Amino acid sequence: MPKVKKVNFALLGLGKLGTGFYKVWDQKRDAIKKETGFELNLKKILVKNIHFKRPGFIDLDLLTTNIDDILDEPSIDVVIDAIGGIEPVFSILKKVIDRGIHIISANRTLLASKMHTISQLVQEKNILLLPETSMGGGVPIISTLRHDLVANNVRAVVGILSGTSNYILSQMTEKRITLKTALKSANLMQMAESLSVIDYEGTDAAQKVAILAAGAFGLRINYLDIPASGISDISLFDIQCADEFGYEIKPLAILKQSTDFFEIHIHPTFVPKGHPITLIKGDQNVYFIQTDLIGEYMIYGRGIGAEAASSLLIRDLVAAGNLTRAHLSRRREYRINWNQKPILPIEDIVSAYYIRFPCIDEPGVVGKITTALGDADINLASAHAEVDKKVHPDLGYVHILIDSAPEHAVINAIRTIEQLKILKGRAKYFRILRS
Ligand SMILES: NC(=O)c1ccc[n+]([C@@H]2O[C@H](COP(=O)([O-])OP(=O)(O)OC[C@H]3O[C@@H](n4cnc5c(N)ncnc54)[C@H](OP(=O)(O)O)[C@@H]3O)[C@@H](O)[C@H]2O)c1
To answer: How far apart are CA 208 and CA 220, in angstroms?
Structure first.
């Protein structure tokens, strides 16, 4: 058996994550000690209300409401932030950093907006900030990109970071039900139990991708600046149209890197049927990575819940144990090297598109629309008219597929076409995932 080494740590927060982590840690610590030689010793737990009833397996003697009990305990090497929100946690963490204690953070809201500031503070003290759990589930994406794929030029990471949105769209696709019906699913309620809300507008995914962008690529971006849209506007008709043209709609976060710039955006996207990402139907997070050396690489796993997050928390405790014992220079591997490469405004990205125009039902509408698109220098892959006399006797649809065009040209053309008298409402468009 390897020699016993200690990692003495404190847990900030004993809510859903803190309690779930405690349980996993308690069950696994003997096995971890046997496997790694590390004794993971929980020394203190910071809570807000000391009188709250806690599950029977919690050692109540560890609880405190005073952060000084942690700061004044010299044996503590690491804290896990499982409180959440920005204040008072940010102020608490500044004191923790000042004391030279390493931080493992599960706090998505805080890191999505203050990763740069916090990483500067920890760097000044030469301590560690291990941020991966803050992305939610248990998939080790930042460490995969930073360490396992270090020899690769990563061209793109396409991810599903919102398990609930993905589950809803998958249910709509498989059962041909509306968004409203899918939202009532019992499985979804169970899945969303650990979340305050379903990620309806893409905000959670934007927070996660901001952390990914900073942690893995050194991109300094506030999640509020990431163009993000969620699933709130997806209709069953959208799902049917996608299916008819050979696609599934998936809630994707897309992060691309070229020599000169990054692209980062989140939106429901048409994904070709059979693409590996379409295999993921439930509450998993998935990352499809394109690299120069190993080509396409995909990882996925549980994206929700304390058990999945605890997998990363325990991994990070062991990593912190190793790094505190290693030469100080090894901590540099975990520092973020901030990247100066600009982020392309979404209007300037080049993508493939599906556009649907609701039109009056009369000859010549396809010609008018394709002419307007041609005038905007947009090459079409296909144009297709459809009328459903049973549902809307006077309404037709023109479906357009575009292989590649700049976003601003597509949007401008759509706005021009919407002024034509043949239009019966707003157009709807989706970006299409191309490899
Ligand atoms: N839930 C998950 O599965 C999960 C997974 C990954 C990441 N996360 C992240 O982990 C964080 C916590 O999530 P959660 O779901 O566990 O939240 P939660 O259930 O609301 O728990 C929050 C905990 O923080 C404590 N707390 C709140 N304000 C405090 C203060 N001022 N001083 C000391 N303690 C304070 C609360 O103490 P009391 O118990 O005394 O009220 C509670 O124990 C969030 O950032 C979340 O994004 C959660």
So the answer is: 13
Structure-block tokens of residue 406 = 């700049």
Same domain, 293 and 176: yes
Count structural domains, the chain.
3
The protein residue with its alpha carbon nearest to ligand 1, atom 28, reads 48
For residues 231 and 251, the answer to whether their CB atoms sit within 8 Å is yes
* Ligand 1 lined by 34 (C-beta under 6 Å): no
Same domain, 211 and 263: yes
Same domain, 150 and 279: yes
Would residue 341 count as lying in a domain? Answer: no
With pLDDT > 90 as the criterion, what percentage of the chain qualifies? 85
373 or 361, higher pLDDT: 373
Query: Which token pair is 399?
Result: 């479906």
Atom index in ligand 1 nearest the CA of residue 136 equals 6
Give the full edge-to-edge strand order of the sheet including 78-81. 63-64, 38-46, 5-12, 78-81, 102-105, 129-130
Residue 385 domain-assigned (yes or no)? yes
What does the pLDDT look like over 367-409, one tens digit per residue? 999 999 999 999 999 999 987 666 677 789 999 999 999 999 9
CA of 426 to the centre of ligand 1 (A): 43
Structural domain contains residue 340: no
Give the contacts of 87 (CB within 8 A, at least 6 positions apart): none
Same domain, 176 and 288: yes
Residues 25 and 104 in one domain: yes
User: Which tens digits make up the pLDDT trace of 230-258?
Assistant: 999 999 999 999 999 999 999 999 999 99
Domain interval for residue 390: 346-432
Give the closest residue (by CA) to ligand 1 atom 29.
Answer: 48
227 touches ligand 1 (CB under 6 Å): no
C-alpha distances in angstroms, 97 versus 71, 102, 199?
10, 7, 32
Does position 1 have pLDDT exceeding 60, yes or no? no
Q: Does residue 339 sit within a domain?
A: no
pLDDT of 206 strictly over 90:
yes
Note the pLDDT tens digit of each residue in 247-290. Answer: 999 999 999 999 999 999 999 999 999 999 999 988 889 999 99
Query: Does the pLDDT value for residue 3 go beyond 70?
Result: no
Distance from Cα 170 to the centre of ligand 1, integer Å: 30
